[in-house]
Amino acid sequence: MKDLVKHYCEGYLRIQLKGFSPERFLNLCMSRQIVVWDLCYQDNGYQFLISIKDYRRVRPLVKKAQVRLKILGRYGLPFFLYRNRRRKLYAAGILSFFLVLFCMSQFIWDISIEGNYRFTDDTLIHYLDTRGIRYGKLRSGIDCDSLEENIRSDYPEIIWVSARISGTRLMIKVKENEVIGTIPQKDSRPRNLVAEKSGTITRMVVRRGKALVNVGDSVEKGDILVRGMVPIYNDAEELVREQPVRADADIYAVTSEGYQEKIPLLALNRTETGKNRHGVRLRLGGFSFLWILPAWGENPWVVTSKSTQAAILGDFYLPLWVDRIRAREYQVYEHFLTKKELEQRKETIHQKKMENLKQKGVQILENSVRILEEDSGWIVQGEFLLEEKIGIGSLVVPEPVPETESDKEPEPGTSE
């Protein structure tokens, strides 16, 4: 690629070689480091390309090898400029093109953000917009050091920021703190553990509180499983008071869960007809131009597009976007579900329910599913036998404990 650009800028010729000893001529060129390329045999002679500079050096070799050289074509920038030396508007257009590119290079036309996971690109782009940094901003008006400091101060979760300008692109790289900045306060208020669902206790581990159920007991929703009150007795084994605590336990029970989902008699299917339309949209700043073949027929179309921003030499982005548009025609029709399709839908619904339960960490012991027919469609009924945690917290207010005779204070004026 580099050699092609060099040859174009210096100019080169296409030469036809004929004569007594063309092979000797080529060997002499090689010995004097004269570069020829694109060598081929054509029209009873050789043809090759050579630069203008090397062409001036081969004249002594022509007489020595007794060959004849004929110029078939002239290529490159020097010949292009010579042929168009009288076209002033053409030269003015080329000059204007490079002038426009130079002016465009003074603005930011693309913003890239890397390393962000907690904060989305849209969030950070909106933040930059509030700081006056947006598409079309002058490069000289952006202070990268100040921008880095502002991002770090406004987003404490970001511990490292790098901002730099490359071409017409503002490149921002961030690194977020993986450790949570604030430690959530622990809730220490007293509570009971109550049953979230009805079931049969299978296993339990009580860490704090007084258990009111045992393994094998059947509980109903709302029953207290672990009481958030610890009784305190004196030496005579008399209840002195109850200390409120935050009940903590892992209680597992076998529960059942069911669902119902309706499937209509008719299903909507969408099939493509094979007809396509292609188009392109050009967007330059706030202006846009759309070209696409018109739609025909009564069927709907689904339209997709792929957007590309124009760029020159890597990071030299321009405020020009090209959207390649493709439209596909499709038809929608209704049909009665077949037995196979109905079975597939049933399995899909049931598998989705099972996946949702597994994501919650619930162990599925047994499962079953069936289809019931109705006038307006079918009903999918599923049943699950599960083993899961059923204890949830419920705040309690400690109740006063009746005082014993030994705890009562003697009345004034009386003696024991």
Percent helix: 10-25%
By DSSP, the count of extended strands is 22
- Count of discrete alpha- or pi-helical segments spanning 4 or more residues: 9
Q: Taking strands numbered 1, 2, ... along the chain, how are they ordered across the largest sheet?
A: 11-9-15-21-20
Strand content: over 45%
Q: Can you tell me the residue ranges where pLDDT is under 50 for at least 5 consecutive residues?
A: 400-408
Structural class by sheet pairing and helices: alpha+beta
User: How much is the radius of gyration in Å?
Assistant: 42 Å
**Average pLDDT score:** 86
Instruction: Tell me the overall shape.
Output: elongated
Distance between the termini: 114 Å
Q: Largest sheet, if any?
A: 5 strands, antiparallel
Task: Based on the model shown, name its key terms.
416 residues; alpha+beta; 5-stranded antiparallel sheet; 4-stranded antiparallel sheet; 22 strands; elongated
Describe this structure in words.
With 416 residues, the chain is of the alpha+beta class. It is built from 9 helices and 22 strands. It has a 5-stranded antiparallel beta sheet, covered by helices on one side. A 4-stranded antiparallel beta sheet has the order 2-3-1-4. Strands 10-12-8-22 form a 4-stranded antiparallel beta sheet, with no helix packed on it. A hairpin with a 5-residue loop joins strand 13 (229-233) and strand 14. The model is unreliable at 400-408 (pLDDT under 50).
